[in-house]
Specification:
Elements: E1 5-6, E2 12-13, H1 16-22, E3 30-34, E4 40-44, H2 66-79
Antiparallel strand pairs: 1-2, 3-4
Length: 87
Amino acid sequence: MNSVTLSTKGQLTINKSLMEYLGTKGGEKIDVTKTADGGLKLLVKRSKGSVMDLAGSIQSDIHLTDEELEQCIADSYAAAGMQGVET
């Protein structure tokens, strides 16, 4: 069994092995819920992130301006027969 330390300020210190088990690191949020048997359940709040978090993660030799990219998107919508896309 692992133990955690409760500080005089009411803060819990979780040891490294438990943090690794939870797949979390310092500074992340953990949801705590009460269980029917009087215990506590810890669930790491996973960040849903943003598509922008992936920016720069894929290397490519394709270089388009914003206008060229918007035109490609509009052309693909038009080719699929979708209406209402402004270019």
